[in-house]
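subagent[fold] <- orchestrator: predict structure for attached chain, return tokens only, no commentary.
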Amino acid sequence: MMRDIRLGDDIDDFCVRCKRVMNHNVVSVLNGQAAKVRCRTCHSDHDFRHEQAPPPKVDARKAALFNEVLKKVAPGDVPVIVDDAELEIIPELDDDPDVEPDADAGAEADAEADEPIEAVAPEPKPKKGRGRPKK
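subagent[fold] -> orchestrator:
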């Protein structure tokens, strides 16, 4: 015969903070059974879970919503619409040797190469105060 649980008894339970079965002290007793326990490792209080991990909440909801969407939509039923502007090929980025770049683009690059390039120094960052101000 097993004796009744009393306040302060050691008991194994699943700790919600540690995420594993750990030693606990009984903090609250209701009808001869542990109601609340305190983890001896992280000192968190929680309801007595009978060494059972809580079921994942979000995953079940996500799976139910995903299955509902799959029932409504079947692949291949919805036609794919592609905008012609998305298919435009930029000749400068194309590796095709048959496409010649514009002659004007080369002339502009040569004109810009003759001009001197000015170096721009980045603005200094303001210094943050450290410690007491100087007198």
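orchestrator: received. Logging for downstream: Residues 57-72 form the longest helix (16 residues). Strands lie at 10-15, 20-30, 33-39, 45-47.
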